[in-house]
Design brief:
It is a single chain. The protein is α/β, with parallel strands linked by helices and 415 residues long. It has 2 domains: 237 residues, Rossmann fold (3-Layer(aba) Sandwich); 154 residues, Glycogen Phosphorylase B (Rossmann fold, 3-Layer(aba) Sandwich), CATH 3.40.50. The strands form 3 sheets. It has a 7-stranded parallel β-sheet with strand order 3-2-1-4-5-8-9. Strands 12-11-10-13-14-15 form a 6-stranded parallel β-sheet, with helices on both faces. α9 crosses α14.
Length: 415
């Protein structure tokens, strides 16, 4: 019987997509009256979690970017204090009906959490929001070369590849951390379940030696921006929504939109904002916006472009747009691009081909009939691409109960 859910993550607040998914699950579990404990690596209190009836344990860790570099590097490889705290909490509170769900662990918690969780591996689910369980830099991506990576993680070719965002020394540190994680948990043989957010991730997880029998797929929940269809065929503007960083391909989109003489409107923030403001004044930079404002802006979108350079694992923005009736121009590197094209919800592009992408934008900018067809089809059929929040919660709970049913009975303590 499922009597306790323990959600473990770097953050207790919504610092990014993975943290938002973890906290969304917590809210849904509490709405169903389930006992939930949130264990976060950071020390930031979240009053909302207490208010909705969660037990909250903040381990008081520090982000890898905080503090002295040498101390942070050692902490990131193996934080013994964090392991002791988590292991002690499990020893005090574990029951046969407790399930553990680990989300992000690489910014605050470190690989030491796998040592603490080893005794409860049969009741453990580990979400793969990205590729950090498989790939040292988390992206199967060569950042200096701005290209996807086809190497086997940990192979000699991987070891010598200078693929890190920063420099090769940091890549070596990531390799050491990757090996520490592998030493602490063998993902080819563990009783834990690795939960991928898209079927397209599975070959890349398996390439790193993660056992196929240990991998399950559950797509993240999607709530459309709009409940009614956006009449995209009446609009003219192309939108980009997301982080303004090179891996997202915004700089490539800016060049293509300029070549196509299409107005581009950008929602989000990041390092590229200042560069684009200086070099491309015709691009409308709207900055970070809350979800409610994005919903208002969405009614003016003809297309949403997602020109990512890397293998985007899920692409929440694409799904939110499609389910609102906004066709998508998706990078063919995105794991979801094939189904977008197959269902007639949008088109795929090579984001590096400026003229090719510009041609796509020009063509779709003129063809109102095709845009309307895509819009209506996406709005009517797009829900099939991902669950809503309640369906997602049902699937998570079914997986948890399956884990409990398969877990061995706990050893009896001596009298």
């Amino acid at each position: 019987m499922l009597d306790h859910i323990v959600v473990i993550s770097d953050d207790s607040v919504e610092s990014g997509g993975a943290a938002a998914v973890a906290l969304a699950s917590v809210r849904l579990f509490r709405q169903r009256g389930l006992a939930v404990t949130v264990i976060s690596g950071d020390g930031k209190p979240n009053a909302e979690l207490v208010r909705i009836g969660c037990s909250v344990e903040c381990l008081g860790g520090r982000h890898l970017l905080d503090g002295a570099r040498a101390a942070a590097a050692l902490r990131g490889l193996y934080d013994g204090r964090m392991r002791q705290q988590l292991a002690a909490w499990i020893a005090r509170n574990d029951t046969p009906g407790t399930v553990y769900h680990l989300h992000n662990w690489h910014k605050v918690l470190s690989p030491s959490v796998f040592a603490a969780l080893r005794p409860v591996a049969a009741r453990l689910v580990m979400s793969a929001h990205d590729y950090f369980l498989a790939c040292p830099n988390g992206g199967y991506f060569h950042f200096p070369g701005q290209r996807i990576c086809e190497l086997t993680p940990g192979s000699m070719r991987c070891v010598v590849a200078s693929c890190d965002r920063r420099h090769y020394g940091h890549k070596l540190w990531r390799l050491v951390r990757h090996q520490v994680r592998r030493a602490l948990v063998d993902l080819a043989a563990t009783d834990a379940t690795v939960l991928a957010v898209h079927e397209g991730m599975v070959p890349y997880l398996e390439r790193a030696g993660i056992g196929g029998g240990n991998i399950r797929v559950l797509r993240n929940p999607v709530t459309p921006w709009r409940a009614e269809r956006v009449a995209a065929e009446r609009n003219r503007d192309v939108f980009f929504v997301g982080r303004l960083e090179e891996d997202k391909g915004l700089d490539l989109l800016v060049r293509a939109a300029s070549a196509a003489d299409i107005r581009l409107r950008v929602v989000g923030d990041g390092p590229l904002a200042a560069v684009i403001a200086r070099q491309s004044p015709d691009v409308q930079l709207l900055g970070w916006q809350p979800r409610e404002r994005i919903a208002e802006l969405a009614v003016e979108a003809r297309l949403v472009a997602a020109p990512t350079r890397w293998r985007e694992t899920f692409g929440l923005v694409m799904f939110e747009a499609l389910m609102s009736g906004i066709p998508v121009v998706a990078s063919h590197f995105s794991l979801a691009s094939g189904e977008v094209v197959r269902h007639g919800f949008g088109v795929a592009c090579d984001p590096h081909d400026t003229e090719g992408l510009a041609k796509i934008l020009r063509s779709l900018g003129r063809d109102d009939a095709l845009i309307e067809q895509m819009s209506r089809r996406a709005f009517e059929e797009g829900r099939g691409l991902a669950p809503d929040r309640e369906q997602w919660c049902d699937a998570l709970l079914a997986l948890y109960r399956e884990k409990l049913a398969a877990a061995p009975a706990p050893a009896r303590r001596a009298a």
